[in-house]
UniProtKB/TrEMBL annotation:
Its main location: nucleus. GO terms for biological process: post-embryonic development. This is Putative AC transposase. InterPro entries: HATC_C_dom, RNaseH-like_sf, Znf_BED, ZnF_BED_domain_contain, Znf_C2H2_sf.
Length: 702
């Protein structure tokens, strides 16, 4: 029986013996195989009759440590919960209280204003000042509360300077090289900015993603201006010597940027070459491919146009009066019109909820896609397909929406398109993980997408019943996606991609062999890796013999035999160092399922290197540099997403300098506040998103 068809039943009803141990809450019981499947991944385990649950506990402990920590927390009764609430709101007289000083109060107030995007005028509001005085109590006479927004602004500006200095020192102290992600953003009050994110791996093998600046752009977002702005950031942080690579989107101005930036590096005698150091955002490439697939499948209409349509839709009726291929072009437009028609009317939304209840389906909000986000189109189709019965019933029950009803043939096409786009969705979510290496998986992602699209073509040509126009439509959409991927795939041959892949113990050069790459190309990859190793990371002869020479100079040998022995050990040390790369490549790849390492605090490739860095001390430096490179610009996009929260309708007059400082400070403070347990839960959440029904953050849903 396949995994998708496993019969999963509720634990509290039909599990043999009605097992009540808390550990069973984290597993589903599969009746057909008498196994327990983890609700957070696909792992399955059998528990013998009368046997212990050690295997279930060990799985959570090794694979999901944050969740296991929750399991081990003692349970509380309702009365205990009530008491804990009282303890929370009532001060504990025996607890050691933090000494309240002007400095600590100032830091807490700044953190509140910045992290919750409060206006500076908050400190001028009478009720807020009353609240502060009440909380300060007897300290209200010694603690200075800012009287005006200008004072609050001054506090924030001074704090920004302090935090910037700390960040500069932290990054400079790191010994590995740094890879950058840059992108441009225009705020809602029409101010141009450039966001700069630094990625590096620290000495404990933590992948650090740090926003370092939001520079104010001078003029338009031209490649020359972007290069000058980025160079200014490198000057500010003194990071020219640590520069390794730059990840950007695929806009045409970035071609100019790299040509200009390469010239700037040349003037500083830095070996920065576009072909080796440029990383094209893979998420953006997949977005372009999916947009081409969708465009070839339908005539696009933006969400804004749909929401503003009046109820008559006369123009649409005229366009939709065609037949055959012309009518098929408007498949997604019909779906958009239907979704928009239901969403914008409270009465129709109530009808839809009622139809969901009658169909015994969960009540969920229909999703209207956004033109620039292909994944929103995917989720729109996926949600409508999931709720097809209540959706159809609602459309047919509203006279003005009947013209948007879809036939069985059209629903089949929606299903085909969802299936075609689903691998792109999974790949996007996987490479958007900011806590583990992503560039090393780029070639593998491309390969999977090509395989999926090729399989879709084969499935189409082998259908028993196939209409000619449908086959043309489907194959045309597939070819559009393939063409776009092929356009950017050669960029994955760059040095940064090759080194990252080889330094990932899950791939090495073995991945290229396993996926059928030509021997000549694999040999060329090996040569590039070897050359970089010898030129930049392999220690020189002087470094290898330094310890031996030091020993010989401090303690003279007593016999010729001892001299011979020392020479033999020097020769062995030299040979062992030279063979680091060869030994690493000669060993087999590591099973990715075994890369969750207990007691390291890190999983995946970084955890493997943390354990083996003593075995490969010099090669580990190479891995630290290249595994930090980001395959996407997701990190800087997430940074920009905080802009609308800051620039509300009442704060459109904020100056570019204030926007810059507030957004950077917020990111820095939140990074410091995020504990390791929350980071672990975030990682687990990403895995659940890929397998379950959780929507990504950027899916428009209310």
């Amino acid at each position: 029986m396949s995994e998708s068809s496993d019969l999963v039943i509720e634990l509290d009803s039909r599990i043999p013996g009605k097992k009540r141990a808390k550990i069973y809450e984290y597993y589903n019981y599969i009746e057909a195989t008498s196994e327990y499947k983890c609700v957070h991944c696909k792992s399955k385990y059998k528990v013998p009759k009368g046997g212990g649950t050690g295997s279930l506990h060990n799985h959570l402990k090794l694979k999901h440590p944050a969740i296991y920590a929750q399991l081990k927390e003692p349970t509380t009764t309702a009365s205990e919960n009530s008491n804990s609430i009282l303890k929370f709101v009532q001060p504990n007289p025996t607890a050691k209280m933090e000494t309240l000083t002007q400095e600590t109060f100032q830091l807490k107030l700044i953190s509140h204003v910045i992290c919750s995007n409060q206006p500076f005028t908050l400190v001028e509001e009478v009720e807020f000042r009353k609240l502060l005085n009440y909380c300060l109590g007897s300290n209200s006479t010694t603690i200075k509360i800012p009287k005006s927004a200008n004072t609050m602004k001054k506090w924030i500006e001074d704090f920004y300077v302090e935090q910037l200095s700390e960040l500069q020192e932290e990054i400079l102290q790191n010994t590995s090289r740094i890879s950058f992600v840059i992108d441009c953003w225009t705020s809602s009050n029409q101010q141009p900015f450039q966001g700069v994110v630094a990625n590096y791996i620290d000495s404990n093998w933590n992948l650090r993603t740090q926003v370092i600046d939001l520079t104010i752009m001078e003029g338009e977002h031209t490649g020359v201006n972007i290069a000058g702005s980025f160079a200014h950031v490198l000057d500010l942080f003194s990071l020219w010597d640590k520069l390794l690579s730059v990840t950007t989107d695929n806009a045409s101005n970035m071609d100019t940027f790299f040509r200009e930036f390469q010239k700037l590096c040349s003037t500083k005698n830095l070996p920065f070459l576009e072909k080796d150091c440029r990383v094209r955002c893979l998420a953006h490439i997949m977005n372009l491919a999916c947009q081409d697939i969708i465009t070839s499948a339908d005539t696009e209409t933006s969400a804004e146009e749909i929401e503003s349509d009046d109820e008559n839709d006369e123009d649409f009726n005229q366009n939709f009066s065609g037949t055959g291929a012309q009518a098929e072009e408007f498949l997604l437009e019909k779906l958009r019109k239907g979704v928009a028609g239901i969403r914008k009317s409270p009465q129709r939304r109530e009808i839809f909820k009622m139809k969901c209840a009658l169909a015994k389906l969960p009540i969920k909000t229909l999703i209207l896609d956004v033109k620039t986000r292909w994944n929103s189109t995917f989720w729109m189709m996926h949600r409508c397909q999931e709720l097809r019965i209540p959706y159809d019933a609602t459309i047919k029950s509203v006279p003005k929406l009947k013209k948007y009803s879809l036939s069985d043939h059209e629903w089949a096409r929606i299903s085909d398109l969802v299936q075609l786009l689903n691998p792109f969705r999974e790949a996007t979510e996987m490479i958007s993980n900011a806590h583990s290496p992503t560039l090393s998986s780029t070639s593998a992602v491309y390969q999977v997408l090509f395989d999926q699209l090729n399989q879709a073509v084969r499935n189409t040509t082998t259908r028993a019943v196939q209409q000619v126009d449908e086959e043309n439509w489907y194959i045309k959409a597939i070819r559009a996606g393939q063409d776009k991927l092929h356009k950017y795939y050669p960029s994955a041959d760059g040095l940064a991609y090759i080194i990252s892949t080889v330094m990932d113990p899950r791939y090495k050069l073995t991945w290229y062999k396993a996926t059928g790459w030509q021997k000549e190309w694999i040999d060329a990859c090996r040569k590039q890796v070897t050359n970089l190793w010898k030129e930049s990371y392999q220690p020189s002869n002087d470094d290898v013999t330094q310890i031996g020479n030091h020993s010989a100079s401090t303690k003279p040998s007593s016999s010729s035999f001892q001299d011979i022995f020392q020479q033999q050990m020097k020769s062995f040390a030299k040979s062992n160092t030279e063979d680091e790369l060869k030994r690493y490549l000669a060993e087999g790849v590591v099973n990715s399922e075994l890369l969750v390492l207990e007691n390291t605090g890190i999983d995946g490739a970084l955890g493997w290197w943390k354990i083996h860095q003593q075995e490969y001390p010099n090669l580990a430096k190479m891995a630290r540099d290249y595994l930090a490179i980001s395959a996407t610009g997701v990190q800087v996009e997430r940074f920009f997403s905080g802009g609308p929260q800051l620039l509300t309708s009442s704060r459109q007059r904020l100056t570019p300098d204030v926007i810059r400082k507030c957004m950077c400070l917020r990111k820095w403070l939140l990074n410091k506040k995020l504990p390791s347990l929350i980071r672990s839960n975030i990682n687990d959440g990403l895995k659940v998103k890929i397998l379950g029904e959780i929507l990504p953050e950027d899916v428009p849903c209310d």
